[in-house]
Amino acid sequence: MGGFVALYDDMIGVIVKGEVQSLSLSLLVVAFLVALLFRSFVAGILASITLEFAISFLFGLMGFLGINLDLATAVLSSLMIGVGVDYVIHYMWHYKEKRLLGKSPVEATRTTFTSVGRGIVFNALSVIIGFIVLLISAFLPVRFFGLLVVVTISACLVGAFIVLPSLIIALRPKFLESEPQLGNNNSVQAFSHLAG
After folding, report:
1. How far apart are CA 131 and CA 125, in angstroms?
2. For 108, how many CA atoms within 13 A lie in the half-sphere containing its CB?
3. CB neighbour class for 95 (10 Å; exposed up to 12, middle 13-18, buried from 19)
4. Fewer Cβ close by (within 10 Å): the C or N end of the chain?
């Protein structure tokens, strides 16, 4: 048995297997790097949970709408992890700064939203507006890709602005509350300046 149908079936199997492996590896690497950055295992777990929410939402929507996982849509998970971890790091770093200034968790959350939150929202909106034009394409796969990019960025935004702050306020992780060690103030301020 041969032909395009058999080739397509094999290709889908390889894509799905590769997607599961690459997603698992990406989440582990991202969790490790975030944990290394904040010097806390909990930080890596919080980042992973936030990203897993966004990924689950994306693939759940794809399943609900009957959108197949193919070469085009497989790229979205990598895009989601790259964008999502950026939002997570920015949020946690600025939240920690506000807590070290003596603000309560709720006040620190509110101040983080009004400072770095605006930058994250404008970043997300610029990407969404850029890709939303693909929805008017006459080519159906391109239209689906545009829709899923919009959903991907929106899910990352919801993860960073609802899931992550809720977890932080509920769990009160120590790495976001502790004072910086002596001798590390310069490095903290330098990275904060770069992240801001």
Report:
1. 10
2. 22
3. buried
4. N
> Which residue ranges form the domains of the chain, and what is each CATH number?
4-195 (1.20.1640.10)
Q: What sign does the dihedral 127-160-33-70 (CA atoms) show? A: negative
Q: Which two tokens stand for residue 162?
A: 């609802």
180 contact partners, CB below 8 Å, separation of at least 6: 100, 188
E strand or H helix that includes residue 27 = helix 4-38
Candidates 53, 157, 52, 55; CA nearest to 113 is: 157
Q: What is the pTM of this model?
A: 0.77
Q: How far apart are the first and last CA of the chain?
A: 58
Instruction: Classify residue 182 as left (phi > 0), alpha (psi -120 to 50) or beta.
Output: beta
Say if CB 58 and CB 159 are below 8 A apart: no
Place of tokens 């897993």: 52
CA 81 to chain centre: 5
The DSSP H or E segment spanning 156 is: helix 140-158
